[in-house]
Amino acid sequence: MEYDMLLLRFGEIAIKGRNRSRFEKVAYNHVKALLHPFPRTEIIKEYGRIYVVLNGEPVQPIIEAMKNVFGVTSISPVKVTPSRLEDILQTAVAFIQQVNAAPGTTFKVSARRVWKPFPHSTQEMNRLVSSPILNACPGLKVEVHNPELNLRVEIREQGTYMYCEIIPGAGGFPLGTNGKAMLLLSGGIDSPVAGWSALRRGLEIECIHFHSYPFTSKKAEQKVIDLAEILARYAGSVKLHLVPFTDIQTSLAQTGQEGLIITLMRRAMLRIASRLAEQNGALALVTGDSLGQVASQTLSSMNAIGRATELPLLRPLVMTDKTDIIAMAQRIGTYELSILPYEDCCTLFIPKSPSTNPNLRVLENIEQTLPDLERMIIKAVDDTETLVIRPGRSVVRREAAEDKVIQENWF
Ligand code: ATP
Ligand code: MG
To answer: Which residues are within 8 A (CB) of 23 and not within 5 positions of it... i.e. 6 or more apart?
Structure first.
């Protein structure tokens, strides 16, 4: 069976009342951008739905691409036939025959008459369509409540749409429709997944990475750029802020507070990230923290670290098990990069026994013994280098011209 088009459905955004048309417009632009490699396709927008007319383009790769459109809850490949009874019956039989269902498969027809002048009622159509199908495929068993195979037949003036497959979409909200946040992107497994989760929830993200060059290598930096490039495939483009962290890290290490060094580093990171958020109009920070995963992610550590910022700290993976995070990383395509062994700034000073229960007062006292800390934080922000990363481009332009970027974004 050659499918004629894909039907994309919206879920949650449907309830958003006034915002709905804006959301659907963003999703439309996202679909359009992802269809760029398939020039013969056409997009038709309808209330609560988008149709992608294939015009001979291959269905499978387009389904795969459409699974990345945030805000789309499900996708159905559709066969279109003229809204005349004999055409509908013939197409329905051919449709079910190619499904090649095992004997005993339960089945029903769900007709919908959108075009009221069509001469047969919905009930009649259910019967009329079922009977030649049952003749052609005698192994099928009719079951009206919860059938394994449900052939939808939507009768419209311009044609009748037939489909039975409902493929889960990415869900969430269309790109950037819920505001902007800064993602703390390390080279690990978790933070890219946290970034993808934020994108799916309709957040625009800008990435921040802290490096301790020359203690950390250029390879480690390239790894983070490559991870951001994968996120850009979902986002259209992303900015990556590279923050020089060597001086701060060295100075924190010199306090001799081995057990607290990671906590102190994380607090400094959040303070820098908060400033970058303010400069870039972001209203939250996103991290890859997962409760209990390491010493700095105990409840007590999260508490002591989180006090360093006034912005909401979003931790999409906080309740997610590592095995599930890994499965997500594999699905979104970041896992293979994340497990490359290059050092991260935090692994350089890993203490033998990091504190799992840091005391906020003690941390604040240590920070006060470092009169230069605030100045170093400001300097790190000033010396931050910003890259703009677009999908599929290994060479990245370093630029400050913000306007250009926004124009080339999808939304
Ligand atoms: P990840 O796999 O994301 O690196 P992790 O399990 O290694 O996480 P940590 O190293 O404790 O956990 O980091 C916790 C979070 O802090 C990360 O998910 C990330 O959001 C942030 N983070 C840690 N190191 C950096 C860094 N060098 N640059 C930016 N963010 C960082
Ligand atoms: Mg890490």
So the answer is: 10, 13, 16, 71, 173, 174, 177
Burial class (CB in 10 A: 0-12, 13-18, 19+), 300: middle
Give the C-alpha distances (Å, rounded to integers) separating 249 from 215, 245, 253, 354: 11, 6, 6, 15
pLDDT digits (tens, 9 = 90+) for 81-118: 999 999 999 999 999 999 888 999 999 999 999 999 99
Cis omega (within 30 of 0) on the bond before 214?
yes
Pocket test for ligand 1, best of 183, 184, 385 (most atoms within 8 A of CB): 184
Atom 11 of ligand 1, residue of closest alpha carbon: 296
Angle ∠(97,102,108) on CA atoms, nearest 5: 65
247-267 in b/e burial notation, b at 16+ Cβ within 10 A?
Answer: bbbeebbeeebeebbbbbbbb
Summarised one tens digit per residue, pLDDT across range 350-371 is 677 888 898 999 999 999 999 8
Q: State pTM to two decimals.
A: 0.88
Cα separations in angstroms, 134 against 23, 96, 129, 139, 160: 42, 10, 9, 8, 20
Report which protein residue has its CA nearest ligand 1's atom 16: 287
Please, how many CA atoms are within 13 Å of residue 285, restricted to the half-sphere of its CB?
28
Q: For 386-411, give the DSSP string.
A: EEEE-TT-SS-EE---HHHHHHHS--
